[in-house]
Amino acid sequence: MAEKPGKPAGRAGMTQVEINACWVEAVRKENKGRILNENFDFNPKNLIAITQKPTQVNPSAATAAQETAGDAEAELKVLQDKLESLKKAPKKKFNYPQTAAQELGWDMDTEFLAHAPKYGVNKACCPETQYANSYVTMTTRSPFAAPRANNVETAKK
Predict the structure, then answer these.
(1) Using an 8 Å Cβ cutoff, are 89 and 108 in contact?
(2) What DSSP element (H or E) covers 14?
(3) How far is it, in rounded angstroms, from Cα 131 to Cα 111?
(4) Which of 47, 75, 96, 121 is 20 to 30 A from 138, alpha carbon to alpha carbon?
(5) Alpha carbons 2 and 155: distance in angstroms, whole number
(6) Are the CB atoms for 135 and 143 separated by under 8 Å?
């Protein structure tokens, strides 16, 4: 069956009613795939605070904002809790390691105590070591180091 010869193909051959029907169908298809997420939450790692322009501030809204200060304090507390969670170590955030890299060192904080030094005081130095430390401090070179090239020439004279 052939098309009617007098009517062009595509949108040019459609009436306004047909065009509107196609538009409604397209919008309906888009709305099927659209899901409204009402549980919005921010990413505190990318938090950027930008103040409003002075010309956008409404004075009557500012007085209404003062009346809802109690709600603002509750929201501020929630925000502070979220920001504090960023500072915590992974072991305090989660009960179990989340990645393979975390599995390697997950219990190292408890195992380190077994190898920690028992005494924080170094052993006393013997007289020879004290002399060598004083010599290095005074001459800025070790008494056990080989002589420098310019000192060898003066030593031969």
Answers:
(1) no
(2) none
(3) 39
(4) 121
(5) 115
(6) yes
pLDDT band at residue 115 using 50, 70 and 90 as cut-offs: low
Nearest to residue 11, comparing CAs of 2, 21, 28?
A: 21
pTM of the model: 0.31
> Using an 8 Å Cβ cutoff, are 132 and 144 in contact?
yes
Residues listed for the chain = 157
**Please, which contacts does 100-103 make with residues 24 or more away whose CB atoms are closer than 8 Å?**
none
- Give the CA-trace dihedral at 87, 92, 93, 96, to 10 degrees: 140
DSSP string of 99-115, one letter each residue = SHHHHHHTTHHHHHHHH
SS3 46: helix
Query: Taking a C-beta distance cutoff of 8 angstroms, is the pair 77, 84 a contact?
Result: no
* pLDDT at residue 113, rounded to an integer: 66
